[in-house]
Amino acid sequence: MKEQARILVVDDNKHNVRLLQSLLTKQGHEVITANSGKQALARVTNTPPDLILLDVVMPEMDGFATTRALRAYSATETIPILMVTALNDTQEKVKGFEAGADDFVSKPFNGIELLARVNSLLRIKRLHDELVEKNKLLERVLMRYVSEDVAREILDNPTENLRLGGESCEVSVLFADIRGFTRFSERRQPAQVIELLIRVFSQLTPVVFDYRGTLDKYLGDALMAFYGAPVPSSDGPAQAVCSAWAMQKKFAQLKRENAIMDSLGLGIGICTGEAIVGNVGSERIMDYTVIGNTPNTARRLQESARAGQILVDEKTHSAIQGAFRTRKIDLMELKGYSQPISIYEVVTGQEPTPEEARDQGDCIPITLEEYHENDLQIYPLPPVRA
User: Fold this and answer.
1) CATH number of the 165-373 domain
2) How far apart (Å, rounded) are the C-alpha atoms in residues 39 and 4?
3) What are the two backbone dihedrals, phi and then psi, of residue 107, each rounded to the nearest 5 degrees?
4) Cα–Cα distance between 68 and 79 in angstroms, integer?
5) CATH 3.40.50.2300 residue window(s) in the chain
6) 4 C-beta neighbours (distance < 10 Å), count
7) Which CATH architecture is the domain 6-144 placed in?
8) What is the pLDDT of residue 205?
9) How far apart are CA 330 and CA 347, in angstroms?
10) Which of 104, 199, 335, 369 has the most crowded CB, counting CB atoms within 10 A?
11) For the residues 87-99, what does the mean pLDDT come to?
């Protein structure tokens, strides 16, 4: 089956143009023409052709200059260029290849040879286009499971990024869990439960990406994300806390719009520290994730957070001072820690008053009992610090 294509013929000789046009049209190709290099550049702007037959010797802008110009534009940099020329000097051909040409046919040309070269270049172009489409599909599929940053990292260096193992780096890990979901699911049909999860995660997941986070996984009625990998960030804690604020706002909006969610809430925990980030699993199936004490602590904080609350560890708290106000809560004993750790509730993204800053810093201490008696209010989302 012959390849039907849109071909641009560029030549200042009208006789040559008519001859090429007749030959190519008989093969079922659509032919457009240009009588100069400048006119050719104008013709390819809106609808790039599948192949360009280009004369070398033309006034003002010769075929070499035209080829270099075509290769400078992203829309035309991969279009095959077949130079049709009376120049048979080897150095001239080398000059054409260096400019970006793909093949040569000498004038006067043999029609059978020219069509064979045309078909060969069109076949290469078709294979290239198929590869580009498959890569786009692969990218879209990858981004259904991992963040855009992770997908790009994988595609840019698949050999390195698809191997098992990881490296240590500082990340801020976020866990967000739907409070009251177990009781809710016990009283609903499976289809209603799934529908609710889709509705909630459809709102929460984009927030992770908005603040340049990496979605790790869904854990039933919870999600896990981290900030600072694979793209390093010096502002991971603020990005994580801003994500938490946005999630609480999104969840509150969903509750206002869906009476069925009246008994539900969102609890969030965030921890910052060193962790191993990389691919865990087997050669057949692997998971790009973060492991270590930092994600374990973040999950424990999330488990302690009540509906509508955001709990953070000491390191996260230190990193966000000045951008968020917090309340210190009683020390908490966690598995793996030799001593109880300090935890903080993020209560607003606004600056503290001068009196609070002087007396307490931006940390308002309360007891664990007081903490459990207070519900988190929803404040305007603070910006990420530059």
Assistant:
1) 3.30.70.1230
2) 24
3) -90, 145
4) 12
5) 6-144
6) 11
7) 3-Layer(aba) Sandwich (3.40)
8) 93
9) 16
10) 104
11) 85
